[in-house]
Amino acid sequence: MSFMTSILERSKIADIGEKVFANQRLSEAEALRLFDVRDLNALGYLANHVRERKNGNVATYVLNLYLNYSNVCILSCQFCAFARRPHEKEGQFTLAIDDMVRQCADAYARGATEVHIVGGLHPKLLFTYYTDLIRSLREACPDLTIKAFTAIEIRHLAERIAKKPLRETLEILRAAGLGSLTGGGAEIFDPEVRDKLCRGKESAEEWLEVHRTWHQMGERSTCTMLYGHVETLAQRVDHLRRLRELQDETRGFTALVPFAYEPDNNKLSHLGLGRASAFEDLRTLAIARLYLDNFDHITAYWVSLGLPTAQIALSYGVDDLHGTIQQERIFHMAGSKTPQGQQVAQLERAIREAGRVPVQRDTYYEPLRPSPTPDLTPLPDLPEQMKTLV
Ligand code: SF4
Predict the structure, then answer these.
(1) How far apart (Å, rounded) are the C-alpha atoms in residues 46 and 281?
(2) What DSSP string runs through 121-175?
């Protein structure tokens, strides 16, 4: 019996291991059983097997920047530290299109290939604000992919602002230059969790309908999962199940981007939930990799995880480290202590140090080119006494 087989047996997942090695789909019950495993290395071993089968030794990242056009929002999601209600003047912002175009053009000139744009559900901004923004960005930065809006923003634009059917709204935005939807706002799909977390936000079915419609137009998007708050592990698996079902139907998701609830400055802070541990992060990423057999990519969102844990996640099912980002606000207003951006050299160093090959990708997870950047800070040679141990 091999060393790993005995570890899988000790963790009581040898049968699941056999299915993974035979490339068979796991059930929800099996995904839930994986959450009982306390041997993280056993989970990582299996998830890494799938990750390498799908993506080899490559780990990708994108040169991107974040733009938040406004934090004015008519909703009050309990976990959100970013939004300000329309009457709450202190701390509100709404950016001018020209300023955002200038910021993007600067990043574009320095090599950015993607801008990621999300904001609150502003009650007064006209639909032309959004179409003008996208069109102006398209004109100023012709090859920059505009990845914008969560499903709830799209519904808000369609139902309250443009007052047009969902598909027509998406078509107008695409004609203006929208290249991809973002995956945000999915949280956890279970209605009881949504009632506690984000009452008034769209239902799971409504979130999925936006992405289904976009995929039916031949387009791609990412999806997310916000874990580590009031949900049960069964509700976490149920969330993954619904994503896997839509992926079976459309094949339109490029990747899952899971991230943990940030506990500060929001209406759930009094619950004292704390932030998920690194163990929780890694097992969730590994189980997502094992369960989502129809997803090509699992992204470690370093803004939430921190780059050190995201780097370790490259051995726990993850094959992508997201992007340079430059100025993240939403997690940082909720207390995230990670940096607000990363340099390419930092991402590449983290990837190389984990034994992977860094490759810059585009928004659709297609490789752009192998990294030309040399490893500027090679690891020191191992001391002689350690060499005998490896
Ligand atoms: S999470 Fe989004 S929809 Fe909810 S309050 Fe914050 S900005 Fe508004």
Answers:
(1) 16
(2) --SS--HHHHHHHHHHHHHHSTT-EEEE--HHHHHHIIIIIS---HHHHHHHHHH
Residue 253 β-bridge partners: 221
SS3 305: helix
Would you say the CB of residue 118 lies under 6 angstroms from ligand 1?
no
CA-CA-CA-CA torsion sign (44, 46, 49, 55): negative
Helices (H), the chain: 3-10, 14-21, 28-34, 40-55, 97-109, 127-140, 151-156, 166-176, 191-198, 204-216, 233-250, 278-291, 302-305, 307-313, 330-333, 344-353, 384-387
Determine whether the shortest distance from the Cβ of 330 to ligand 1 is under 6 A: no
Query: Is the Cα torsion angle 244, 250, 255, 260 positive or negative in sign?
Result: negative
Q: Which of 256, 229, 230 is nearest to 241 (CA)?
A: 256
Q: Which atom of ligand 1 is nearest to the CA of 73?
A: 8
> Domain-by-domain residue ranges, the chain?
56-363
For domain 56-363, give the CATH number. Answer: 3.20.20.70
Q: Which residue has 């960005």 as its token pair? A: 137
User: Has residue 192 got a pLDDT over 50?
Assistant: yes
Atom of ligand 1 nearest to the CA of 80: 6
Rg (CA), the chain: 21
184 lines ligand 1 (CB under 6 A): no
Atom of ligand 1 nearest to the CA of 119: 7
What confidence tens digit (pLDDT) does each residue in 212-253 have? 999 999 999 999 999 999 999 999 999 999 999 999 999 999
For the segment 82-99, the average pLDDT, to the nearest whole number, is 95
pTM (two decimals): 0.92
Q: Is the CB of 235 under 6 A from ligand 1?
A: no
